[in-house]
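re: ur msg from earlier - yeah i can do the protoporphyrin IX containing FE complex, just paste it... oh wait u already did. ok heres what im feeding in:
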Amino acid sequence: MSNPDHDREAEVSLLDGPPHDVKIKPIEKKKEAPQRAKLGLRRTLSEKNLMALTGLFLCLFLAVHLLGNLQLLLPPEIAQWQFNFYSKLLSGNIFIELISYLLFASILAHAIYALVITIKNRRANGHRYDYDRRGVTSKWYSRKMGLLGTIILFFLIIHLRDFWYQLQFGHVPLDKDGQKDLYTLVVTVYHSGWYVLIYVLCMIALGYHLLHGFFSAARTLGVYDPRYVEWIKILGWIYSIGISAGFAFIPVYVHFARG
Ligand code: HEM
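and the outut:
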């Protein structure tokens, strides 16, 4: 930032005329830094837009995925037939396959841009402040989005290995109707208490990640209007708690009721 006193001093000395042995820098060169900063800010904003858009798409996916998984809570006989039928319906559909590619691309883009923005912010801040007062204005989970995101990525690797990979490339037994028995696969995985515990902990991380992500996306996309702030807050809390509690409840229920 320019110091007004220095600028005034510079003006006076220029009016007096430059001494012959002093070279005056061309004024245009001074404009370079703010221009570079503006360019960087614009790029960061478009990266944030991409984070917000992929994040909202992932939020939509989570709502649909949770609705599908709630079928696991139906009485066992019905749940088995219905969940396996639902899975068969999805796997044979070209439209769902395209959405699935978009989903994996969004997860990758979201994670990569999060890393890029984090590294840029660290470089821009240079060093940690001796006395860090950021906690006064922001929530702890807003400052730990990287950690929460990493926990979710860890969860996704285990999750995709156990279900998606098994369904696509593994040997899933068939049910009595000849459909791949994904229901029994899920119930068998949730027999393990440790597995269920890890799931629940990861869902708590997901809940906090969604909470901050929801408000952050609303700000980035410019819908965080003062007139709707209260509504956006209520919606964010309902969505984040509903999704994370819903996903956490399913393995706990299956473990104790079908174990
Ligand atoms: C109770 C919790 C959950 C259960 C029972 C569950 C179950 C499943 C099953 C059975 C599949 C394989 C189905 C298929 O590929 O067609 C699957 C896929 C997947 N799940 Fe989950 N899931 C749960 C929570 C989550 C959460 C919290 C996330 C994200 C944070 C997630 C992300 C995914 C993704 C990205 C796929 C791959 C989807 C695709 O094939 O396009 N799941 N899940």
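cool cool. Confidence is low (pLDDT under 50) at residues 1-20. ping me if u need the other ligands too
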